[in-house]
Amino acid sequence: MSRQACAALLSGVLLTAGAQAAVITTSTDQITLGENSNTFTLELRLEEDKPFAGAEFGIDLPEKTTLTQVDYLDQAIREASHTPEVVRDGRVYFGFYGASNAFQGEYSVARLTFTYTGSEDALLSLGTSNVVTLNEDGTTTGDTSSAPFQVKIEREESSGGSSGSGGSGGSERPEEDIDEGETPLNPGVFTDLEGHWGKDAALRAVEMGLFSGTSATTFSPDMALSRAMLVTVLHRQEGTPAAAQAAFQDVSAGSWYESAVNWAAAENIVSGVGEGRFAPDQAITREQLAVMLYRYEQYRGNAPASTGDLSAFVDRDQISPWAEEAMKWAVGAGILSGKDGARLDPQGSATRAEAASILVRLLDR
């Protein structure tokens, strides 16, 4: 995956070669169901020593088995973005993602509820996993090397069987391996864009090298965009030029966004949020996005001339004075459009889908 093709909005620390794979386990490796019981639960656990931004799981379902519910457990994972539950060829996918490498250590990921209507013993297994990290160069990397788990589903022969809630069991896990190199879906097939208003713009942004997916199957269109992510995209568009160190106390030396922030500050594309801070991880607001792009156009030698009329927007009084000129330009140039209810939502966070749409309008014309 090339740097240009992955001008990703997710960036961070790359898993080093030879690092130990994440450990993915379940609360039991054997389930016993009574004759009249069809439902059971498993708790999925994940342990990863390196910082990571999210994980995707693909569970191979035996015939007559359905994943009916996913309840995320640890608070950090509950608050993350969740990928849709998608079934393809007998494998069900689900996962969670954040906007930075905010995860590390041991997590009780989710309680999974299954329905099994078969009468024979069956085997449920982890078919694929993808622990996603954010790389120093602004791309994403997925580690798919975790060993698969397997859970045996047994039917009690007697009519007086148990309730079927699932037992811990003490049997050894089968040694059967999953073929290496399996991936959930072909790269670029983003299941969470189906029916989404931003699908066309998101796919075009990926084609232009502005964005990559958050996994092989997801784009995460509704994930908030951070300030560091936007300057990284713009920096890439200019070939990642070097610049002197900016005077932001919250931009760490060696961070994945340091070079981009230094360049953006040197070219007056960004000026920080006050008190010597850039707030790299802060979700960018729609008016901040407009201001950065307005200044970026000035940097490129394109004197922004379009001036839009904001009088039709009911929340125009919520635009900060320092952002008004840029907002007028963005509206007049057709870069920024309103939302339902004739709102500009200047203080609202910009999502990946919104940013993709705005950047495509700006750069693809």
From TrEMBL:
Skewed-composition ranges (Polar residues):
134-148
Q: Which domain of life is it from?
A: Bacteria
Keyword Kinase set for record: no
Q: Where is the signal peptide?
A: 1-21
Gly residues: which segments have biased composition? 161-170
- Give the residue ranges for region: Disordered: 134-190
Which PROSITE patterns is this protein grouped with? SLH
Q: Which residues cross the membrane?
A: none
Specify the protein name: S-layer homology domain-containing protein
